[in-house]
């Protein structure tokens, strides 16, 4: 019986380890598999590219019903309001009326893991925003990193196949520390810039409320006169950009795998509404070629020191979902959901996404009527001649369902552009049909070097550690050496450190980009720092004074700092509820810790909590009646960010609150 089944399986086995030419599913041998068919090397992608459409269609339908990427997400409702009219740049109504409040829905997500994976893994985070405008839905579908791994959408299935769990074991879940991802990196050097971002602290955000969002691609804004500007979109968090350290992120998985989504839910429930400002980087069309990078290349950012970010409005998330599946899981984003005044560029990655997203929704949401699901439905009326299909929820009255018609006075009829109808920007396109890449896209290393140069010494150390950890999880020495070769083209010292940690050879020749350019905006050391909505664990040991604890709790609340009382067990301390215990929480889930001890001996679980707080460079406050209770503690109390005080020393407590704003004390021994 077993042999018969084995023979049956063999008949359906394709051995991809055997040498073979690449073909389409119809057996057609293909001469090129890296570039989609374009009108000129920098032109738009052509719909006749049957190979791209076959490859992308198959990829889009590989998972049902879970999203192929960005499967693990969390969403919330909110509103957006522009600060002042932007008529100079765009005719989009929601960007021109400061009195108008536009409803939004935002979904944050990780990329690699399944719906059941953890929140605090090292990964890119999705940041997708749906604006329910009076002119239709507009979707800004981006990430917390401003660039991407690849330049052409035809390689997107390859990238995702490489970063996903390896197909023969389905391991690892929720992370990129494995052979196939780093093999892809080593063979596709256009990934260099994005790899630097992913291996930096940006890959392990402290909170979804404390990360930037980027539209990634170059778009166009078009005003009423038809004048266009190239634009990149930014979301700037009002709380600043903050991250975890790697050891902390790993520990958080064990205590609360839902740390980020719980953090978002609780913040909104408490009224600590997350806020971001919308920023625009703008380049007039006539300046398209005035930079030392191609502005259409999705692996490149626009340095903020060269092209400033103009802050134009604010988004506030103020309502949690009522039902996760109906809203967060069924929401359908698409970069092709536009309103008048916003249009595309010829970015080849963006061009491919315009096909892929609708194609994916057809499979994931069961047919062409996914726009009728309540979370996806526009707030403005919609009328067209599309009919029937799976899950059709509307009852269409009337005899006609085509254009043009005379039986129904040609209703619904197209709307002229001067009355709000959408018209595509008229860009001249002239070029040979070609599969290829513009020469202006071939610099893979300069901006990777710019990013690394812009990091502080601590941030550089974290990138070195992250690369060493991820590549250290790979089995193949060839994969490790190829990745080190890539790093050697970015920064020689980085390559040497990682190679030494891995026990592999660094290339003899130093091929690093020779540049000392920096961009201060790229370093998280320059972000906003304030105590608002940070969380403090008040660790209770012994018979502490309830009234004094209550005063400290009130002071924290006055500074908009959240707190949790943590004890050996749950109990009432006066009228304060000690809800958390050392079994249920961990230092990795808090921004700071405050030990209040009246005990002669501090137990091991308390010591571990404060030692990990110290180890992760976070602020630590100590109010200890019996100094000998900390005799075995490895915390050095004379180090930066360690605050000791008594009930009469309010200055010491205020210094602790300032320390909460500082967040990390990297100069601690």
Summarize the structure.
With 669 residues, this protein is an alpha+beta fold.
Structural summary, described in words:
With 669 residues, the protein is an alpha+beta fold. The protein folds into three domains: 49-376, Catalase HpII,  Chain A, domain 1; 445-524, Catalase, four-helical domain (Hemocyanin, N-terminal domain, Up-down Bundle), CATH 1.20.1370; 529-662, Class I glutamine amidotransferase (GATase) domain (Rossmann fold). Helix content is 26%, strand content 17%. It is built from 16 helices and 20 strands. Strands 2, 3, 4, 5, 6, 7, 8, 9, 10 and 11 form a ten-stranded antiparallel beta sheet that branches. Strand 4 (125-133) and strand 5 (136-143) form a beta hairpin. Helix 5 runs parallel beside helix 10. It is globular, with a radius of gyration of 27 Å. The termini are far apart.
